[in-house]
Amino acid sequence: MTETSGTSTKTSATRSGGARPRVAIIGAGVCGLGIGWRLAQAGCAVTVGDRDRSGMATSWAAAGMLAAHVEAEPGEERLLPLLLESRAMWAEFGRDLEAASGLAVDYRDEGTLVVALDRDDTERLKFSYDYHRSMGLEMEWLSGAEARRLEPHLASGVAAGVFSPLDHQVDNRKAVVALKAAFVKAGGALREHAEVEEILVEGGAVRGVLVGGERVEAETVVIAAGAWSRNLKGLPDHLRPPVRPVKGQMLSLAMPADAPLLRHVVWGPGICLVPRKDGRLFVGATVEERGFDESLTAGGVFALLETAWRALPAVEDLAIDELWVGFRPGSRDDAPILGATPVDGLVLATGHHRNGILLAPVTAEALARLVLTGRPLAGTEPFGIARFARGAVAA
Question: What sign does the CA torsion over 301, 302, 303, 305 have?
Answer without folding.
Answer: positive
